[in-house]
């Protein structure tokens, strides 16, 4: 038994020594990036899928759990693959050209995005839309910092909030098919289901009655 413990400690020491080797840093960073992508994707998707599935999806308890597991796995896998691809391509470009350059990041991410997130499915669509909104904010701030557009005299956020909500509700009311299914479900719950009730039970307690009354 003691021999087994000694072997394990020796293995751990060897692994820790390897992790300290600077010449392997780029390759090890790719592996650590894959790990972090998988963990982060699971942490983000699991609670979201849990809430959305039990709020809006029909089916048995087992079917709902299966749906949650599939969504979590897909998000975790895709993010892990993307980080792995991105960091690998970044390291390869830096090695080939002798130093890290700004366009390396853009090119590596473009290739990773095409390969990993190019399939138009609900999970990828949500991720891309999440990123798009943040990109628009980031580019707007960058444009002001660089002087391409003048600094607003007043906070433009109230106007932005008004335009975003006005547009999305107009689309929901008159062009619903253009919105993502999960957003359609959320808005149906908020703005249509609130128009229907029969008694106190489905007015305050439940959204919809489940009996045949």
Automatic annotation (TrEMBL):
It comes from the Eukaryota. GO terms for cellular component: peroxisomal membrane. Pfam families: Tim17. InterPro entries: Pmp4. This is PXMP4 protein. The gene is Pxmp4.
């Amino acid at each position: 038994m003691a021999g087994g413990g000694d072997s394990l400690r020796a293995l751990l020491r060897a692994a820790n020594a390897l992790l300290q080797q600077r010449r392997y840093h780029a390759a090890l960073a790719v592996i650590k990036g894959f790990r972090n992508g998988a963990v982060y994707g699971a942490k983000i998707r699991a609670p979201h899928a849990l809430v959305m599935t039990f709020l809006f999806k029909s089916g048995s308890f087992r079917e709902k759990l299966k749906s949650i597991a599939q969504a979590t796995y897909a998000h975790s896998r895709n993010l892990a693959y993307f980080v792995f691809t991105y960091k690998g391509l970044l390291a390869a470009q830096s090695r080939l050209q002798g130093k890290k350059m700004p366009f390396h990041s853009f090119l590596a991410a473009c290739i990773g995005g095409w390969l990993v997130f190019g399939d138009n499915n609900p999970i990828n669509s949500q991720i891309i839309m999440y990123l798009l909104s943040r990109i628009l904010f980031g580019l707007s701030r960058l444009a002001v910092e660089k002087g391409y557009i003048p600094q607003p005299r007043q906070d433009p956020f109230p106007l932005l909030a008004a335009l975003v909500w006005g547009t999305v509700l107009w689309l929901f009311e008159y062009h619903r098919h253009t919105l993502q299914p999960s957003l359609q479900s959320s808005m149906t719950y908020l703005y249509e289901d609130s128009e229907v009730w029969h008694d106190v039970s489905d007015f305050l307690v439940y959204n919809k009655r489940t009996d045949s009354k």
